[in-house]
Specification:
The structure holds two protein chains of two kinds.
Chain A (H helix, E strand, L loop, with lengths): L1 H29 L2 H30 L6 H6 L6 H7 L4 H22 L5 H25 L23 H29 L5 H32 L10 H26 L3 H24 L12 H25 L14 H32 L7 H21 L10 H25 L6 H18 L12 H26 L1 E7 L4 E4 L2 E12 L3 E12 L5 E4 L2 E5 L4 E5 L1 E5 L2 E10 L5 E9 L2 H37 L1
Antiparallel strand pairs in A: 1-10, 2-3, 3-4, 4-5, 4-6, 6-7, 8-9, 9-10
Helix pairs in contact in A: 1-2, 1-6, 2-4, 2-5, 2-6, 4-7, 5-6, 5-7, 6-7, 6-11, 7-8, 7-10, 8-9, 8-17, 9-10, 9-12, 10-11, 12-13, 13-15, 14-15, 15-16, 16-17
Chain B lengths: L7 H18 L19 E2 L9 E2 L9 E6 L4 H15 L4 E6 L3 H11 L5 E5 L3 H5 L7 E5 L5 E6 L7 H10 L2
Parallel strand pairs in B: 3-4, 4-5
Antiparallel strand pairs in B: 1-2, 3-6, 6-7
Classes of the chains: A alpha+beta, B alpha/beta.
Chain lengths: 645, 175
């Protein structure tokens, strides 16, 4: 019954999206007030209907209703409640439903809250949202119905992949989806502005919170996903340049560029056509990401259930939306007036360089990710791995970091070379000092990229806080703090990447009970293996006594080799000790027949900085968003007061 | 800016989508073939495994006679299914060199007694070193080697009854 209600809600939402598109089209064409007024309520109800459908799916998952085919294929009655709940989106159909639900809610939110933008542009935007939603509703209803029944119903379900039975599942996919969908709103704004030829600061200010919001969630999603892969897969790596990771990185790169160019448009009314282009590119990257993940066209650690037919469906949607948007861009952008100009040495100039470098990195990642497909068409099978990405994107990212350090210290419109160099003295000194210090003091030879990374991280850290120098800290605007924290976060992440790459120590040993093994500053003693039992798994658990240095306190780590019965799978649960200066990472392997057990031990100095920095970047984004919203509110209030007076 | 430049992004998108669509339409052949196909066999000499049968050395392959290298193991179920086809190839006059992967003499002797013995020689590859150097990732696999010791074809998986002719023709063509 719940399943049928959910399906009905989904059909209704689809019908409302159709109505929304039709009304918006007519309204924009005729400009009638009654038509314009009808679009907002429809958008809001469409969002509510999608939410009801998602709620119904979560309800059947929580109730373990095995007569619903999707539940039977992906859930099991013995699964802990959290994973029944999160399992609703731990599969293809459910995740696509989550996608359209967030899309519908975002459209509803635009309809409810956006008051500053020109009404026709806003209605055109809502029309764009409806067009996107319609395609995805069709995809769900015709190619991936989540509410189909299994007849006869099986006695119990097939279970959820144990790698997904982790709290990370509850957060990682929804955060990324919110990010993707936020970019779809930016895309719709761009379409709306192109349709009504209204590209200017008002459009940029309306779009900015969505870009910023999407970017915050993408940052969180990527950071959390990286940490999840790091501890759950047991390989000890935090980034693999896997196609699906790239699928989340590419929208992030585009959104980062968009975030900076939209600021130029909102503040200085410059970079008009470029900002519109970036909004289109950012959403195309999220759709390409969805396509790569869902079609299974590239082999990846994210081996979702794949289906070429569904891939073809998404590919068709991609061609329609992005192709349509790019065609509209080519036709209309000639009519967009050139915005304000600026000199090369200025804040705008710095942001243009930032945008170009980000675009180049985006292009490299895109080429690396798609090259296997192109090569396959030429008849060669190959995969593109870390050596390509590290070697090409790495150096450019470092140049970008250098520009990032200088950018916020530049003035808008024009600046003076002499003055800029004076302001940059301290960061440059910090860079040189840190580089020389690492080079001289390091216990191991440091690679060129890592050395440059560590040095630049120090320079960037100093430069990031510089905009607050000599300012009244209480009166500095919140969005300035946001930028400072976010840029500092990048410095922290960069330092973590370079340091852990350089100083990581790895030991792979066949351990006998009682024999200590040295890894980094730790002495690890294997004390034996015990069986343990979990809610839906059993495991062999090693007991490792760990001591730091000669006279540190002893503590215990317990890595497990887990066995899940539904479905039958073995996983290894790493055990990690986090200290201020890094992590000790332990994995239990197989026994040999002579009473020894394989142990894999890593000492990863400063590795935690990577995710700490990621979190700081997201927090900085949130501060900045809050700051902008507060300022907009104050401006509106002042305008109203002025109107009264 | 020139007008036609504005259409470039759309063109780029269509090219990428075209490649993606092409890849999507292709039947999904996930078989990864060895990069060694078309290359000379890497040099190796494997010791004999069962009494009365010589080992396998790459040096012999350059003596002018094309042959098959069959990578197998007594613990491999598809190898049992493949055995009758190998016997037929042997009767058709194809010399077959066996490379036994991670195996023991007694197990291989029993395997040959049960399923027939198509091999001219059997080399003992205890740790899969030669298997990996040939670019083979599993058992059974069959390589066709021409008279100059070059790998001309790789067959991944067991040889089915209807594939015997194609293998035989490829062997003849390798002369």
């Amino acid at each position: 019954m719940t399943a049928e209600a959910g399906l009905a809600a989904l059909w209704l939402a689809a019908a409302l999206a159709g109505l929304q598109l039709l009304l918006a089209g007519l309204a924009v064409k005729r400009g009638e007030a009654t038509l314009l007024g009808a679009v907002r309520p429809v958008a809001i109800v469409q969002g509510i209907m999608a939410l009801i459908a998602m709620g119904a799916l979560i309800a059947v998952f929580c109730a373990s209703d095995m007569s619903v085919a999707l539940v039977a294929e992906n859930s099991h009655s013995a699964k802990p409640m959290l994973y029944k709940f999160a399992g609703a989106w731990g599969n293809h159909e459910g995740s696509m439903l989550l996608w359209v639900t967030i899309l519908g809610l975002a459209g509803g939110a635009v309809a409810l809250f956006e008051r500053r933008l020109d009404e026709r542009t806003l209605i055109a935007t809502l029309g764009g949202q409806a067009a996107i939603a319609l395609g995805f509703y069709a995809f769900l209803l015709f190619a991936s119905n989540p509410f189909g029944r299994a007849d006869p119903a099986p006695p119990d379900g097939a279970g959820l992949n144990p790698l997904l039975q982790d709290p990370g599942l509850a957060f990682h996919p929804p955060t990324l989806y919110i990010g993707y969908v936020g970019l779809s709103v930016a895309f719709s704004f761009a379409i709306g502005a192109l349709v009504t030829r209204d590209v200017g600061p008002a459009f940029a200010r309306a779009m900015r919170p969505w870009v910023l919001g999407a970017w915050i969630f993408l940052t969180l999603g990527i950071t959390a996903g990286s940490y999840w892969a790091y501890y759950e897969l047991g390989w000890g790596g935090w980034w693999f340049w896997d196609p699906v990771e790239n699928a989340s990185l590419m929208p992030w790169l585009a959104a980062t560029a968009l975030l900076h160019s939209v600021t130029v448009l909102a503040t200085r009314d410059g970079l008009r056509a470029w900002t519109v282009m970036l909004a289109v590119v950012a959403f195309s990257m999220s759709m390409i990401g969805t396509f790569l993940v869902r079609s299974g066209i590239l082999t990846s650690v994210h081996a979702f259930a794949v289906d070429p037919e569904r891939g073809a469906f998404i590919l068709a949607l991609l061609a329609i939306y992005i192709g349509g948007a790019l065609a509209l861009f080519a036709l209309r952008v000639g009519t967009v007036r050139a915005g304000n100009t600026f000199e090369f040495l200025s804040r705008e100039g710095g942001l243009v360089i930032n945008n170009l470098l980000l675009s180049v990195i985006l292009g490299l990642v895109l080429i690396g990710t798609f090259y296997p497909i192109v090569a396959a068409a030429m008849g060669t099978q190959l995969s593109v791995g870390p050596p390509f990405f590290d070697g090409t994107a790495g150096p450019i990212a470092l140049v970008l970091v250098a520009v990032m350090a200088a950018g916020p210290l530049l003035r808008w419109r024009r600046d003076d070379m002499q003055a800029v160099l004076e302001r940059l003295m301290l960061p440059i000194a910090a860079t040189l000092f840190a580089g020389a210090g690492v080079f001289v003091l390091s216990s191991k030879p440091v690679g060129a990229l890592s050395l440059a990374g560590l040095a630049l991280a120090a320079g960037l850290a100093v430069a990031s806080v510089a905009p607050l120098w000599k300012r009244d800290l209480r009166r500095a605007p919140l969005f300035l703090y946001g930028m400072v924290v976010a840029h500092l976060g990048i410095a922290v992440t960069l330092a973590g990447m370079a340091a852990s790459t350089t100083w990581t120590e790895e030991r792979l040993v066949a351990a006998r009970v009682g024999e200590p093994v040295q890894v980094g500053p730790f002495s690890v003693t294997f004390e034996g293996v015990n069986p343990v039992l979990g809610a839906n798994w059993s495991a062999l658990e090693a007991r490792l006594a760990v001591q730091r240095g000669e006279d540190g306190a002893t503590f215990y780590l317990r890595p497990q080799s887990r066995f899940f019965a539904n479905p039958v799978t073995n996983t290894s649960e790493s055990a990690i000790a986090t200290t201020l200066d890094g992590q000790l990472y332990t994995v239990l392997g197989q026994p040999d027949n002579a009473g020894r057990w394989q142990l894999r031990l890593w000492w990863k100095p400063w590795v935690t900085l990577i995710w700490l920095g990621g979190a700081m970047v997201a927090i900085g984004g949130a501060l900045s968003m809050l700051g902008h919203i507060l300022r907009e509110r104050r401006a509106t209030r002042r305008a109203m007061e002025a109107a009264w007076a | 800016m020139r007008r036609w430049l504005l259409w470039l992004p759309l063109l780029a998108l269509l090219v990428v989508l075209g490649f993606a669509a092409r890849e999507l339409m292709k039947p999904a052949d996930r078989t990864v073939y060895s990069a060694m196909v078309g290359q000379p066999v890497p040099d190796f000499a494997l010791p004999p495994l069962v009494p009365g049968k010589p080992g396998v050395a790459a040096a012999e392959f350059r003596a002018g006679q094309p042959r098959l290298i069959n990578i197998f193991a007594s613990w491999c179920i598809p190898c049992i299914a493949e055995a009758p086809q190998l016997m037929r190839l042997k009767e058709m006059g194809v010399p077959i060199e066996g490379i036994a992967i991670r195996d023991t003499p007694s197990a291989v002797t029993a395997f040959l007694a049960r399923n027939g013995d198509p091999y001219r020689a059997i080399g003992d590859d205890k740790v899969s070193r030669v298997q990996l150097s040939l670019g083979s990732s599993g058992v059974p696999e069959t390589f066709i080697i021409d008279g100059q010791g070059k790998i001309v074809k790789q067959h991944v998986g067991d040889i089915r009854a209807d594939e015997v002719d194609a293998i035989y023709q490829a062997w003849r063509a390798a002369r």
